[in-house]
Amino acid sequence: xxxxxxxxxxxxxxxxxxxxxxxxxxxxxxxxxxxxxxxxxxxxxxxxxxxxxxxxxxxxxxxxxxxxxxxxxxxxxxxxxxxxxxxxxxxxxxxxxxxxxxxxxxxxxxxxxxxxxxxxxxxxxxxxxxxxxxxxxxxxxxxxxxxxxxxxxxxxxxxxxxxxxxxxxxxxxxxxxxxxxxxxxxxxxxxxxxxxxxxxxxxxxxxxxxxxxxxxxxxxxxxxxxxxxxxxxxxxxxxxxxxxxxxxxxxxxxxxxxxxxxxxxxxxxxxxxxxxxxxxxxxxxxxxxxxxxxxxxxxxxxxxxxxxxxxxxxxxxxxxxxxxxxxxxxxxxxxxxxxxxxxxxxxxxxxxxxxxxxxxxxxxxxxxxxxxxxxxxxxxxxxxxxxxxxxxxxxxxxxxxxxxxxxxxxxxxxxxxxxxxxxxxxxxxxxxxxxxxxxxxxxxxxxxxxxxxxxxxxxxxxxxxxxxxxxxxxxxxxxxxxxxxxxxxxxxxxxxxxxxxxxxxxxxxxxxxxxxxxxxxxxxxxxxxxxxxxxxxxxxxxxxxxxxxxxxxxxxxxxxxxxxxxxxxxxxxxxxxxxxxxxxxxxxxxxxxxxxxxx
Length: 599
Hints:
599 residues; 5-stranded parallel β-sheet; alpha+beta; 4 domains; Beta-Lactamase; Rossmann fold; 5-stranded antiparallel β-sheet
């Protein structure tokens, strides 16, 4: 019989569960907001498509998406998820599109959720759905403004072709006709008759000031039709906008210009407001994407832990330098991904990234593989062959498991690194290659130097920028993120979305992961293929929980809790209020834990 957990142990276990659970929920919330913003950016998307698309996105942000349904009520229309069920467990959130138009977002649980408080929805869910509703209101306002503006422009064009607000007729630079609407628009006396003088002279007598270009059109020019928009100034300094369209016609056998004028101030203001709001949404979307990348992803590397943030900084520094870099870390931590990220962000990104597995090349072929050889250089050399240094010219040479290189090969490679020249096997002609070295190893290179397994000069030549990758057991907060990524990546197209049970996630957080991220990746692929969890492998790699060696389950949980609190405090620079926010605790609860854990 397993030992009964103490209240403190249960509290610690619940705190860890809540911490990992909250991390997953934040990812879901950000994904939901990102998906809604991305939906709006699709070209030519209709209002119905935006609302229908949004209603299918909303349940994914819920704590229990599998039992969540939703609907949007707007403009006497209803948009529902498939199988929507109006239940007693409902949250209604109103959103405002304009002073006259409002809508309603309703989210329902189809059955009672596993609750740990009295309310059907958590406070975090209430806040999230309010944010979604506010964003939806802004998007609908922009879309309706776009539709209104488009309809307004089409109506104005029709009016300009038939009956416009202001009309003038000019010929040979003289004004032949104008209507009362034009006179009013430009501040002329009502009933003023057309004068045999240029239109610009007539306008200059009025009270409205505007650019002359909008008032005249050369009937002898090559263009048969011209369109203008200009800013005008009325008495008192008030500004308004006028649109004009000039069409060349024939009058009494001579070309003349028929012009239409209209006040387009409201149209311009609509356009400006729409552009400003669209720009705000675009910047918000860019910020959301960049913040997600900054927090959770760097190129093809996943991880938001403090340790991985430090790795990201080192990658950027290495990418902006041309010095050699040495990546160390246990097997499966992603050393090649880091090397590729450095290459792709560097000035060599458009050249080759050449990967060399130093431990897989037979010793007698090392020189030929690196430097190439000439035809007939040795038995089997039937043709000239380019070496790794030839291929990597201008690019990056990635030496995986660099500790496996022989001392003899280290000497020859060091010469090529220092001087850039080398000689292919069977040739007497020197060749040059401009390449950058990135080395990786899971062994202690300095220890190899001390033991005589690596030359000291070679070590210092490749160890200019050191980058150490943390093992997965030291970045537990990244596990839920990695699990979600691998589930999405490897789930077959015909298979329903699968989620990791919370109990199994707890087991993952207590597992030591000797194979690191690669082992976790294989575990998820195996789970999606056969549906089994066999990664504990008869207990190997699991944290000890038996009491035979004095390390009980209580001790294990307390150790994990202590590690989490320490990391939060370190990340917050020992600011207790900030650390409590990171852990999802009150400041008083954190203080009690620190006292109990003797921190």
